[in-house]
Automatic annotation (TrEMBL):
Source organism per UniProt: Hibiscus sabdariffa (roselle)
Reactions that this protein is recorded to catalyse: a (3S)-3-hydroxyacyl-CoA = a (2E)-enoyl-CoA + H2O; a 4-saturated-(3S)-3-hydroxyacyl-CoA = a (3E)-enoyl-CoA + H2O; a (3Z)-enoyl-CoA = a 4-saturated (2E)-enoyl-CoA; a (3E)-enoyl-CoA = a 4-saturated (2E)-enoyl-CoA
Protein name: 3-hydroxyacyl-CoA dehydrogenase
Record's keyword annotation contains Metal-binding: no
Lineage, highest ranks first: Eukaryota, Viridiplantae, Streptophyta, Embryophyta, Tracheophyta
Domain 3-hydroxyacyl-CoA dehydrogenase C-terminal: 489-581
Amino acid sequence: MEGKTYLEIGADGVAIITINNPPLNLLSAHVMLSLKENTELALQRDDVKAIVITGSNRKFSGGFDVTAFGNKGKHGKFGFFSIDFITDILEAAGKPLVAAIDGPALGGGLEIALACHARISTSSAVLGLPELRYGILPGFGGTQRLPRLVGLRKALEMILKSKFVNGQDAQGMGLVDAISSADELVTVACHWAKDILAQRRPWTVSLYRTDRLEPLPEAKMMLEHARVKSKKQSPNLKHPLVCIDVMEEGLIRGPRAALWKESEALSELRQSDTCRSLVYYFFARQRTSKVPGITDMGLKPRKVNTFAVVGGGIMGSSIVTALIVSNYRVILKEMDEKALLAGIERVKVNLQDHVKKGKLAEAKLDKILSRCKGVLHYEDFREADMVIEAVGENIYLKQRIFAELESYCPPHCILASSSSMINLNLISERKELQNRIVGTHFFGQAHLLPILEIVRTEKTSPQVIVDLLAIGKKMEKIPIVIIHNSTGSVMNRMFFPYSQAAMALVERGVDLYQIDRAAEAFGMTMGPFRMIDFVGFEVLTAMKVQFSKNFGERFNESKLFSVMHKGNQAGETTLKGFYIYDRDSKFIPNPDTMTFVNKLMKLSDEEIVEMILFPVVNAACFLLEEKVVVKASDLDVASVMGLGFPEYRGGIVFWADTIGPKHMHSKLEKWSETYGAFFKPCAYLAERASKRTSLGQAKSRL
Ligand SMILES: C[C@H](O)CC(=O)SCCNC(=O)CCNC(=O)[C@H](O)C(C)(C)COP(=O)(O)OP(=O)(O)OC[C@H]1O[C@@H](n2cnc3c(N)ncnc32)[C@H](O)[C@@H]1OP(=O)(O)O
């Protein structure tokens, strides 16, 4: 990835430097050096009075090319770009410099704009410093200039949460000086630069501004609060704390000293395992929507405006919620008036939850809800572009529903089942329907988790998969395409051993709550028992039935499960499971489960993590062996999105490869001899262990 910049000098004496490295105008070392050269040239020329920096094809810059973090290169230290160029040449220029921003201005891209003396943006431009996503910190002065432009509070929020803002909001917070239409952007920026020269506008050097900074005692409290929060939320991560320290350095020892600290921190962090894993994960996530043999066929997604959902239970109503929030019209069908009212009520409660969590403005609630129309018959399905069946796991019921759909839905209508347990090939025998049948499996609750499994049967047409990928994108779900329809799909097949291994340990005397604590300390979003409560016993029961039928000795029959189930402690939706919940989702251990906390078997946290996660790695290996997904990296993304595996460890397969298949295989083999076939390693894992090759062939691009 090379790229360059172009210099063009207008008759009015304004030089326009355009960053050109399609498609996103990323900043390679090449681009940075070319930008430096052209800036120096423009500064030397007498016919240039002012400079505007912009990006080609309506994109300012997507930031530094993250694959280059590992490179030492000719200008090894990022400090060369940050201090020698951006600070001492760009920001210190004796001619006014204005950034003209459209499209993305992210990471290093925004940092270049921050060093300019003013910023003009379109209202739809996207600005942000997402470096923490990659285990690093903003390294071109962003930790210093952003707080000085928008105040420390907002800067902390943007940097620590990798939060993007649009041009309009950026203007509101003082990040950009004016908004322009895309067509006039560069002209407005040129005028602005000439106005600075004529002293009609301020010539602002961001690095030395102090008027937006909070008073020091208040700023220190904010930084301390951010530290405490970060340690609590991500105790295993060092880079957010390093970033906070660097921001503090600027307030105490001045921005210049802090720029050096920032660049040294960047040099160190970019070589960390966390950075390697997070860069790997970034590309793994980007690649989920690329399915060889399908997305490379040149097919365009068709328009899908109206959905119909059959069944308004917990899953159905959650799917309706996710769809209407994404601007789709939805027809919800139930069997009778009572069930319909209950389904719509559930949708309402889901939306109210979104309002409570600040994800939705209360004023929009009624409008969003009005996109859902309740019906008791299939007549309205004649206008549906896609139907999602979300009834219980009963094949006969599903077959009846699909037979009805056939007579009411138009011929282009996609026919989906939300089931992950039932073989989609059995849902309809009618040949003419089969290329339209697809699985759309939302793990847990559709409106809460950002993942969508798209399950293809041998007959599902590539067009339907392309349509579903576009729908997933609109719903802001990460798609995992399953190319081989199998019991349990991907996430359930990884979740099931996670929960089963944990139950097996409790039956042998390990403290139930220690298991959750150990898993969470490792970085899992939820320990296995919290997760069982979240998914719900109803779903787990359905899984249990199918898994025991399909996976024989690999299935572990847990007494613990039956006891809980009998006691009607069905998980978070009933406010009672392994934990007791209040209406605000706060929870405490359920005293009824104390009988299981006998602590007879003592394991260290590390041993617990191995015993609950190695079976998940084994499950991932089974999925690779059966070719259920096209690439191992899809399992990494599914493990992070569905199972809550820490993304800073790269995902389950990537992590397994850092430990090594040989070690995992020998542990699983040993446990299978002691505790039974549930732990038995599969042939895929055995082969890789004996050949000492990697499980996923997944490498970070660093
Ligand atoms: C020193 C500095 O402080 C350090 C930095 O600058 S860190 C980098 C900060 N920048 C980012 O994080 C931007 C990440 N990118 C994005 O969020 C999105 O790509 C975007 C919003 C900019 C654009 O989205 P969209 O238009 O859908 O394009 P998208 O498909 O994502 O990207 C196009 C290609 O560029 C790649 N790409 C995007 N950003 C990249 C980056 N920063 N580095 C390397 N490759 C990148 C994508 O992987 C994709 O590659 P492919 O065509 O081979 O699949």
